[in-house]
Design brief:
The chain is mainly alpha-helical. It is built from 18 helices and no strands. The chain has a single domain (about 5-380), classed as Sodium/glucose cotransporter. Helix 4 (about 65-100) packs parallel to helix 9 (about 230-245) and helix 8 (about 210-220) packs across helix 11 (about 260-290). The longest helix has about 50 residues, at about 155-205. The relative contact order is 0.18.
């Protein structure tokens, strides 16, 4: 199905404006301080926390990633992907409560790392988080641009620039509060549209029987949960998605935005279950793609199944769905980056006023939007860079968070353990274009080597005085109003 590019361009612009204007109006009314701009501390109830977490997670990638994973690894890959999207929410409950207890005036993960471990481990963590945020934003824009191009021959740069401009505009003024506010509105579009997408997908596939029959004939291993290839794919996706989610600054912002510990627990539990269900259902389109014997690239499996049968009005409705998905995750990523800039520039420029830091947080994001939009406009496959970012997070996960609970774990131990995990993981990491044969081993080494090295060094390194966790709370203060 290919539609008129002029009318699709107009429709795309109109949808972007409609989704951006409420956030802009809300932002102009708030006039928040820098503290509120990056934190919105203790302001969100359970329903708001659930909605913003789900909207933040369900980016445009859900229309591409889970289905493509299913074409590789079948049921095992779908379960691994779905569990990987749910588990970070559950892990974040004890981690988030611990962080709020130790650093009640905190703003994110980097503050903990620099005060707990020092500058070297802080630099490791900062680079990992910023690299991941860049890739996440570029991938989201690339995905929505590719989706629009499937409907009409719209240049990728037009879609990427339109979405980025609309999102930056209201996030520039409103920060985290505007992001959370628009997340709730965007879910009004996302939830019913995903329901309709599943209904039309069921109709286009002719129900379950044709898919099952086709899979039994051509790829029965995709239906076997115990299939070795499926298990490897599922475990790889689980490790990659689960450990990377711990380093997303947008989630740490929402930990501090939750009204209290009870809201945090409920919001993260419910959103985790929602993530599992949605990702699992989206993955089924990959099985239908293979079972029905459709031609084309597995990365667009969902659209291959769907677009042959849907009416024109639903094809048009996919554009506001795609925009709502990408803007709900993009504004969170932009706000998260602004938060890191404000907090860390405040450390580099201790004499800077809040007004100066807010200006830096805003305008550096505008500057960063240019290369992100350029990358998205190229239509590159960002899966390799995504996996590389996932590997970096996997190597740093245990060292970063072990010190949140263990008093004798030092910054030197964390740096050595992370370095060993990176070396081991990168040694097995497949080169571009060489396939994924050693990808699981790469992630396992990156995640597990730091655990072993950390435990060994606890015994070998000279014992130091136990760290006083009360120093964290005393070291981090809110910005002045």
């Amino acid at each position: 199905m290919m539609l008129d590019p002029v009318w699709i361009g107009v429709w795309l612009s109109l949808c972007a404006v409609v989704l951006a204007v409420p956030g802009l109006i809300h932002a102009r009314r708030q006039r928040d301080s820098l503290e509120d701009y990056i934190t919105a501390r203790n302001t969100q109830n359970t329903s708001a926390t659930v909605l913003t977490l789900v909207a933040t997670t369900l980016g445009t990638w859900i229309l591409f990633g889970p289905a493509q994973a299913a074409t590789w690894g079948g049921i095992g890959a779908i379960l691994g992907y779905a569990l990987g999207s749910m588990v970070p929410r559950l892990i974040m409950i004890p981690l988030g409560q611990r962080m709020r207890d130790l650093i009640p005036d905190g703003h994110g993960l980097t503050e903990f790392v620099i005060h707990r471990y020092g500058r070297v481990m802080y630099a490791f963590t900062l680079v990992i988080m910023l690299f991941y945020l860049f890739i996440l934003l570029a991938a989201g824009l690339t995905a929505v641009a590719r989706m629009v191009a499937l409907l009409a021959p719209i240049p990728l740069w037009v879609t990427a620039a339109t979405v980025m401009t609309a999102t930056v505009l209201y996030t520039f003024y409103g920060g985290l509060r505007a992001s959370i506010y628009t997340d709730k509105l965007q879910m009004i579009v996302i939830a019913p549209m995903l329901g309709l997408l599943l209904v039309f997908g069921w109709q286009a596939a002719g129900g379950v029987a044709p898919t099952l029959a086709g899979l039994q004939e051509t790829a029965p291993h995709l239906l076997q949960i115990g299939d070795t290839g499926g298990l490897r794919a599922g475990l790889t996706f689980f490790l990659a998605v689960a450990l990377t989610g711990l380093f997303y600054q947008g989630t740490w912002q929402r930990i501090y935005a939750a009204h209290d510990a009870k809201v945090l627990r409920r919001g993260f539990w419910i959103s985790g279950v929602c993530n599992f269900v949605v990702v699992g259902l989206m993955g089924l389109f990959g099985l239908a793609f293979v079972g029905l014997g459709l031609e084309g690239d597995g990365s667009v499996a969902l659209f291959s199944v769907l677009l042959a049968e849907v009416p024109v009005w639903f094809a048009l409705a996919l554009i506001p769905l795609g925009l709502a998905l990408v803007m709900s995750s993009a504004d969170s990523t932009i706000s998260a980056t602004s938060s890191i800039i404000a907090v860390d520039m405040g450390r580099l420029l201790p004499g800077a006023t809040d007004r100066t830091l807010m200006s830096l947080a805003r305008w550096l994001i505008v500057l960063a939007a240019i290369p992100v939009t350029w990358v998205a406009a190229q239509g590159y496959g960002v899966l390799y860079l995504f996996l590389l970012a996932d590997l970096l997070c996997s190597a740093a996960a245990f060292p970063v968070f072990f010190g949140l609970f263990h008093r004798r774990y030092t910054g030197l131990n964390a740096v050595i353990s992370t370095s060993c995990g990176l070396i081991a993981g990168l040694a097995m990491f497949p080169a571009p274009g060489t396939g994924t044969a050693t990808l699981l081993e790469s992630f396992l080494l990156a995640a597990l080597v730091p655990v072993g090295v950390s435990l060994v060094l606890l015994r070998l390194l000279p014992e130091r005085a136990a760290y006083d966790f009360s120093l964290l709370g005393a070291s981090v203060r809110r910005f002045r109003d």
